[in-house]
Structure prediction request, 228 residues.
Amino acid sequence: MRIDIVTLFPDMCDIVLNESIIGRARKSKLVDIRIHNIRDYSDDKHKRVDDYPYGGGKGMVMQAEPIYRCIQNIILYLDLKPFIIYMSPKGQTLTQNKIKEVAIKNHMILICGHYEGVDQRLIDEIVDEEISIGNYVVTGGELPAMILTDAVCRVLPGVLSDQECFKEESHYNGLIEYPHYTRPEVWKNRSVPDVLLSGHHENIKKWRQEQSEIQTRHTMRLNNINLK
Prediction:
């Protein structure tokens, strides 16, 4: 898979996505992540890419043309148009099912907004989908884009050592993951559950399933989701 991130802060994205599992996946060429600076496509001598909003109001709006030029440069020699996503608080909320859906794309372009967002005409012209990471607002689209990139990359073949690494994780199959424990057996007078020390694999599997269901119901209550 190839992912292009269109941003005002390329170093911010590159530093994060060169670390840990995603960094190793990039070095191993399991995923091709390219980061582009929108300011490189501005005609303004100061590389300005924003302006005052029509109709008044506080804040600035990112101009359509520099972002459009950046994306046109990306797709110039491609046979097929990539799937273009704008990271937006008004988009569909990101879930593990959405991750599975976009992970089958061959090529994605992620647009990182800033200030008050981007000119709506750009969204209408080229964006295929808007995605939000939750019902709150952050300073820009860089963190959401990196979250989406990280979540997508780790389900790609070969990125994790074994597919079971993510198939048992929270949300992958609709359940929250069961609790984990490691050495020592007793810490602060709290013991590891006996079943995990038993060596009885079927009992351990059953306990983990039960705990996943308990954790899921608890999380749903915290989030005011109706239990079926």
In short: The chain has two domains: 2-153, 175-222. The first helix runs from residue 10 to 17. The mean pLDDT is 92. The radius of gyration is 22 Å.
